[in-house]
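Thread: quick sanity check before group meeting

JM: Hey all, I'm pulling together slides for Thursday and realized we never actually wrote out the predicted structure for the chain we discussed last week. Dropping the sequence here so it's in one place. If anyone has concerns about the input, flag it before I start.
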Amino acid sequence: MPPLVQVEGLTVRLAAAGARSSILDAVGLSVAPGEVLGIVGESGSGKSMLALSLMGLLPPALTMSAQRMTLFGHDLVGQPRAAWRAHRGRDMAMIFQEPMTSLNPVMRIGTQIEEVLRWRGRLGRQAARRQAIALLEQVEILAPDTRLRAYPHELSGGMRQRVMIAIALAAGPALLIADEPTTALDVTVQAQILDLLRGLQRRTGLALILITHDLGVIAEIADRVMVLYAGRVAETAPVRTIFDAPGHPYTQVLRASIPDLGPRRHRLATIPGTVPGALQMPPGCRFAPRCPHRRDVCEQASPPLRALGPAHAVGCLRPFGYDAMGTGAAEVPG
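JM (edit): ok, ran it. Output follows.
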C-alpha cells in the first residue's frame, strides 16, 4: 500500500536571510496508512515547522522547497494555497500545542465544531449539531449537549484539548498530526489524552504523526520514530531500535536523559549547550558542538543519512561512537 505522505528534500528558510537560514534542511519522511510516526527532539529542532509545512500553513516570512511532497497521491510542490486547502480537514488535520490559543475565544464550542461539519461534510444545521454531539462523546466529554454551548474559557485544559481533537476528527481525515498535544497538561490528564489518541487511532485506523520532546510518550504510542535536531534528521528507526540500540549520539543522550524510576545511582544525563538558531548553524554536523564523540571532520562535513539496518538510518559519521566512514553503508535519500 502506498504511503499517505511521502516527502523528500524538504527545506524551509527565512525568506529575508536566504540559503544561510535553513530551519529545516533536506528532511524526508513517509507515513503509511494506520502508522504512528513519532517525531522527537528538543525545542527549536524544527518539529512544529515540519508539521506546519505538511499542512501548508507556513507564515509568509518563510519559504519552502522540496524535491517531492506527495500527499494522498497528489504532488503539492509548487502548488498554490488552494491545493493545500483542499486537503486540510478532509484528508489531514492537526491538533495544535495550546488549545486556548487555537480555539476561537468568542465562539461557542458547538459552533466551532459544526462549522467544520457544515463546510467539509456538507451537513445541514441539525445534522451538524447531532454529529458534533457524537464527536464530543467520541472524545469522552461528559454531557456533550451542554458543552456545545460553552466557550473555551469555561472548559479545563484537558477538555479544551479534547475539543481540539473533536474538531480535527470532524471531517474524517486519514492523517492526524498532533503537535505536542500534552505539553500544557498535568501528568494525569496527559495520560488520559494519550490513551484517547491511541484508542481513536486503533479504532479508526487513521495514520498519526505525534510530535513531542518526551521519549516516554514516544515509547507508549509510536511504531516508528524520527529524531530531529536543528532542522535535520538525526535518526529514524522502529521505536524498539531507538530505545535498545540508538545509533546517533543525540539519540543516545536523549535516551540517557530519561529519569529512572528506580534507585538513582548516577546523576541525570544532560546535554551541554543549546540548539543553534536558524542563523547560527555550524557548517558541518549541527550536533557537533555538543557531541561527546565529535572529531574535526564532524565540524567540516555534513553527514548524510546512512542505512545501518532494516528501516534504521542515522545521519552521523560516527554512529554508536565509532568511525563508520568508509564502511560502505548505504546513503538514504533525504
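AS: nice. Residues 187-204 form the longest helix (18 residues). The radius of gyration is 21 Å.
JM: adding both to the slides.
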